[in-house]
Design goal:
It is built from 12 helices and 11 strands. The chain is an alpha/beta fold. It starts with a helix and ends with a helix.
Length: 282
């Protein structure tokens, strides 16, 4: 019987188009903290553990109104952490796989960390469905989304509070916030993400009915199933092949490929299998 690694390698080899989908588990192999459950979150943010706030409670826009130094302490620390974290080798492998497909590839991620951008993926072939921490918007809802490039947030790691000038809106001078979809967030400006999703829809529509679409899903859980649902819908509607990589929740529809494993090690194993297959060609 052909192994799952061999099946996945063959699927990627034969793909005309590659859709890479990713959730929080994709970043763990790069060294980012695992926020699964309060214990994991509090281990990464001890001062917040003392306050007893969960990730969902902290990732809420209300803090920018009621306690902006705490809000920017939390998001400023994450901004600094993501900027200083190099994407693991699996990102480079996925980029090569996309380049080998006749119709290229596209990324759909719920992560706000900008890792795919830093790994060299084209912005015009990407959907960040929950926004991106590298972009900001005005808390007062001035129109426009602006880059966080050049924005520095100093964070006291003993309190996780921001000090010094907080990020501000270039139009009104008021407080800025990340252009990230938070919990209970009616103020998120979704226009950048809406444009990304429209480009993804056009790319999918451009694929011929006979095109072989392969979806490589990395670290997307069931708690917020947006990423998983997209892959499964495309399996039903387009007959796509789904390769699901997840340490804990890798169950797949019949006929699809599952790996109960980490993203980096699995992507490297598929890459090695592909190299071996090529070396055996006459």
């Amino acid at each position: 019987m052909i192994s799952s690694i061999a099946r996945a390698a063959l699927a990627v080899d034969e793909a005309d188009a590659l859709l890479i989908t990713a959730g929080a588990g994709m970043g763990v192999d790069s060294g980012l903290p695992d926020f699964r459950g309060n214990e994991g979150f509090w281990a990464a943010y001890p001062p917040i553990a003392k306050l007893g706030h969960s990730f969902a409670q902290m990732a809420n826009p209300r803090w920018f109104h009621s306690d902006p130094t705490l809000a920017w302490g939390f998001y400023g620390h994450r901004l600094n952490l993501y900027r200083s974290t190099a994407p693991h080798a699996g990102f480079a492998g996925l980029k090569r796989w996309s380049a080998s497909c006749a119709s290229g590839g596209f990324v759909f991620t719920s992560n706000v960390d900008g890792a795919f951008v830093r790994a060299g993926f084209a912005d015009e072939r990407m959907v960040e469905c929950h926004g991106a921490i590298d972009y900001l918007q005005c808390l007062r809802r001035c129109p426009g989304i602006f880059s966080a490039s050049g924005v520095q947030v100093d964070v006291d790691e003993s309190t996780f509070r921001a000090s010094g000038p907080l990020p501000s809106c270039p139009q009104c001078g008021g407080l800025a916030r990340p252009n990230v979809l938070m919990f209970g967030d009616s103020g998120w400006d979704s226009r950048r993400t809406d444009e990304q999703e429209a480009r993804l829809a056009r790319w999918l529509e451009s694929l011929s009915a006979s095109a072989k679409l392969v979806i490589v899903e990395c670290g997307a859980g069931t708690a917020i199933p947006t990423v998983r649902m997209l892959g499964e819908q495309l399996c039903r509607r387009r007959g796509a092949t789904l390769i699901r990589i997840n340490l804990r929740e890798a169950e797949v529809p019949d006929g699809q490929i599952a790996f109960f494993a980490g993203a980096k090690s699995t992507l490297e194993a598929i890459d090695a299998e592909r190299e071996q297959r090529r070396s055996q060609l006459p």
